[in-house]
């Protein structure tokens, strides 16, 4: 099919004003936050309904076209990159929120609904959508669900998967499925909904989701603690978790903190500095919870696990303390970081992190290493910063050489090569370090059932 004929047929489905081929659009919608691959889509199409998505998929099957889903494009594994002339299906216009049910605490959302949009809607209903992360102001629910996004509240409220009551999807054959009917209890065989959650659009495209909401937390308080020794962070976690329910437990290194403080946007938490920091958030419904937290803090000081600390005295201070952790990704982006998003069970974090740190320090003596992550759920973010004088291509080539050693360590600790960022193209070569050969074969078989012609986000996650 010629490019002219393609544009004409896409326009017949969504309207001429919903098809773009200008260079700016191709560059913008053809990539995500990954800097490794250059975007080269053939066209960007903006459907407004499930039926239009279905017709686009049917057209792709008829003419052997490749489709790539595009949400907020905040992914870090090249899952939404169109590098080989694919048609990008952007869900920006499928952003309606409807059918709120106060009794069931559910709401229907189009795939293009921004995460923050749902959070704000929940607040207006005096409820809460707990999945939260730094990109909540631009990420879209379809992408969140397709990558099973996690974020900063997993220790209390779990992953995106835990909040999806029902899904409408268009499979790779163009069939529309309505999955789970929004039921809380539905013990009728295979839950196909779960295949599309975390499937990265390789089986089909999510067009609508029914999301669950919950009670809004009250009087959230934030503690930031300076922790000299890595092992002691886990002692602090155990001490606090044994006595109270935490809504977050985050970790970052002093190198990460110094990058954030250098911008001058937020003040240092306290005068002293330590190699590591823990950020703890908890709900204080009464003075008892605050007293408990302070007692635990004092015990950590007495045990020598903590050198200093501060607790928020206002919502503004709590927000500023959170920025010490949440501003890290944006702050270090100017160094074009090579990112690894890895995880192990919580109890294995200290030896695992030490092993990884030894490898990268040995192999990259001239690179700056930044650590942070959701250590309360075993998720660590390893960031290697590109020196200014080094070309991007050479930098990534050098980083790729050591990835095998990093992922061999992940395998040793029975961890995951991708905790929450997805697989896309960047992690696909390393799946065997987290998945057995039998699992990979079954994943390939599932792909063949739902997308036999390989039109749905080909080259991502798993190959036919």
TrEMBL record:
Q: Catalytic activity annotated for this protein?
A: (R)-2-hydroxyglutarate + A = 2-oxoglutarate + AH2
The GO annotation for biological process reads: respiratory electron transport chain
Give the enzyme's main class according to its UniProt record, as a single word. Answer: oxidoreductase
Q: Write the Enzyme Commission number(s) for this entry.
A: 1.1.99.39
Oxidoreductase in keyword set: yes
Coiled-coil stretches: none
Flavoprotein is among the record's keywords: yes
The alphabetized UniProt keywords are: FAD, Flavoprotein, Metal-binding, Oxidoreductase, Zinc
One annotated GO molecular function: FAD binding
Name the cofactor(s) required for activity, per the record.
FAD
Which stretches make up the FAD-binding PCMH-type domain? 37-216
Its subunit composition reads: Homodimer.
Recorded family membership? Belongs to the FAD-binding oxidoreductase/transferase type 4 family.
Q: What protein name applies here?
A: D-2-hydroxyglutarate dehydrogenase
